[in-house]
Specification:
280 residues; mainly alpha; MetI-like fold
């Protein structure tokens, strides 16, 4: 008698479960996309409908008109967001990789204690650290400046954790060979370690981009010409029911950029998640 393939028989339920979980997780994206093209009357249908019946682009037209009439130009909001995002990504990548290198490839007293602190810091949400961040930024005189959002982004523990775990998977032989050739620690870090941790770097970029791109700067920035784009788009919904369509279009535009970035970098992110934690 032909025996059943246990691998196939066991993988089928897993595949069905993952397919159902994936379909459930994509519902918010489908809902956001369809809302952006719904006419105003479809927003108040009960029960709510996920898919649009009569697609229209009027929501985007209304959004453009609202942003055109704003006191601060739309390009200023866009520049603020890009400046905060780019500076935060660059700073976090450099700080996280520089701190992860000695934790991963050197032995020194207190190393395990420092890494334990990093792991514990992963359990604190941004809401918990918001008040300490505000107090520090206030003491430094950086409230109502770009740096009140950029500087705290440098010290996020998740990036340090990922970089440290990924660097540990690199063989020590490449470092030993570089030292024999006379390379300094800085040269090893910049010319050998960093090129080999590109998947982890791309993962940090997408994680930081998602967080900073959606940061509205509430409580830290008060000047209108310094506020980021999410703040300006969030104000659209305060105009009542007539602006529901424009707000849906704004949410769609905010979502498109990080989703597109993730699509282009997903292979690198998956590689990082699969490699992190492995050791020779």
């Amino acid at each position: 008698m032909k025996k059943l393939n246990r691998s196939w028989f066991g993988s089928l339920p897993l595949f069905i479960f993952l397919a159902l979980a994936g379909a459930f997780m994509i519902l918010p994206i489908l809902f956001t996309v369809n809302n952006a093209f719904k006419p105003l009357d479809e927003f108040f249908i009960f029960p709510p409908q996920i898919f649009v019946r009569n697609p229209t682009t009027d929501n985007f037209t209304d959004l453009i008109l609202l942003l055109r009439d704003s006191w601060v130009p739309f390009t200023r909001y866009l520049f603020n967001t890009f400046f905060i995002t780019v500076c935060g990504i660059i700073g976090h990548t450099l700080f996280a990789s520089a701190a992860a290198y000695p934790l991963a490839k050197h032995r020194f007293r207190g190393k395990q204690t420092l890494f334990t602190i990093v792991v514990l810091a992963l359990m604190f949400t941004p809401h918990v650290t918001r008040i300490p961040n505000y107090m520090i930024m206030s003491e430094l005189g950086w409230i109502d400046t770009y740096w009140s959002l950029v500087i705290p982004a440098f010290a996020l523990p998740l990036g340090l954790y990922l970089m440290k775990q990924f660097m540990e998977s690199l063989p020590d032989s490449i470092m030993e060979s570089a030292k024999i050739d006379g390379a300094s620690e800085y040269r090893i870090y910049w010319s050998i370690i960093m090129p080999n941790v590109k998947p982890a770097v791309f993962t940090l970029i997408i994680l930081q981009f998602i967080q900073l791109w959606g940061n509205d700067g509430y409580g830290f920035i008060y000047s209108e010409d310094l506020k980021p784009l999410p703040f300006a788009l969030a104000q659209i919904g305060l105009g009542g029911f007539v602006r529901q369509g424009a707000q849906a279009a704004a949410l769609f535009l905010l979502m498109v950029v990080p989703v597109t970035l993730f699509i282009f970098m997903q292979s690198r992110i998956i590689e990082t998640m699969a490699t992190s934690g492995m050791k020779d």
